[in-house]
Amino acid sequence: MTTEARNPESPRLRRELHLWEAVGISLALMAPSMAANINPQGTAGSVGRAVPLAFALATVGVLLIAWTFVRLTQRFNHAGSVYGFVGASLGPRAGVISGWALMGTYTFYGVVTSTAAGIFGAEFLDSLGIWTDQPGWAPFAVGAVALAGVWALAASNIREGTRVLLVIEGTTVALILIVSVVILIRLATGTAPNGNTLDFSVFTVSGGTGTSALFLGVVFGFLSFAGFEAAATLGEEAQEPRRDIPRAILGVAIFGGLYFVFVTAVEVMGFGTDAAGVKDFIASGSLLGDLGSQFVAGWVGELITIGAAVSAFGCALACVVGATRLLYALSRDEVGPPPLGAVSARNGVPVRSTAVVAIGAYVIIAIGWFVFGVAPFDLFVASGTIGTLILLLVYALATTGAAKLLFFSGERMVAAWEVIVPFLALVVIGYTLFRNVYPYPTEAAKWYPIIAALWVVVGILVTFVRHAATRRAGERLMAEEGLATGTGSRTEG
Asked: Can you tell me the distance from the alpha carbon of 415 to that of 400, in angstroms, rounded to the nearest whole number?
């Protein structure tokens, strides 16, 4: 162990974050204001008006999965999140695969969110008359600029950044909730500008919509929640990780469920539940931006659109931070390139890993734009689906590891009845994955499961190529006091 990463005198992550900063990174990566403005459109493409139903099903699955992360983060704190959790409970190979997979999810989500920032940013520039008659690649250009800003911020100390993200996200979410209540009141009183009224058919599927289509839509529900567990990657940077990290994860998951079901129901009813309304819903450039302009005032819609763009930027930043911490943890244990397992002596951030993740996101965007010529929203859908399919596998491994650790490792650590929680979580995860490959999707969507599977296969190959390093990493995960007892021996006090 001669690398800088294993030298006890080398710079390490600094334990200086508090509860609200942990909430900030999870809330920023989940990005509820961005997600509510664009993700439901992907769901509507599969389930029509039943978007809130799909999000309600996703909420059930996410709350079951949140139990896994809460229980694990009460015991472990590790920069590699599931890499550490799964490695300690299911063994080093499963841990490395989980860490690699989650890093892939966050990287693909970095593409999703920087593209969304480009879409909303271009829409805002058009609405102000700054850049009209835009070419089809305009969102890519704006998104590329946003990703450059993300790279710069992610390479600096994130303490202040997480606070700023929380303030921006909280302000935009508050505005969205206020506008949603106004829309709901106008729908209930019959004063909606398009003649729509309250219609609770949004919680039922229309005729001809099968179970497979419903669970294809649930994927975008999971995509909207994805990142609620991101606080787990700050386990070595939080001052009270075994208290604050579980609270942040569970709190963000509960809030997300209530928020998404309410807002998506208002959105669908605001556009209309008939075929024409669903068509307009899918074609919208900014769901709540358009509704805000129609139901309240034009400036409100523009404010929400720019808020969603900033939210997408913050989410992209959180994605890059999360992926960077995973790459750093893997490389620190020499499963990845050792130079990527070092942090900057100046600011305590793994700058090299940050550069690799940001460049990786640029490469994915460039391939989609220049090689395959996909439209910005199509790249958004593709990257989001691929990242979520990978994420579901990660959730399955983490849930299995938690069940083994808590119920089948000798001394039972929690109440016996809780065993039903990981069982139900695995049922939801498994069925969602199954419905996304059977019947097998067609056209461009047929490549999404293939790309997701290839990413996981590469992770499996890494464990064979780096077999000795993987084994040593597993031994350290089990033996190091910093992981086993939460004392944080990896981290500067």
From this structure: 17
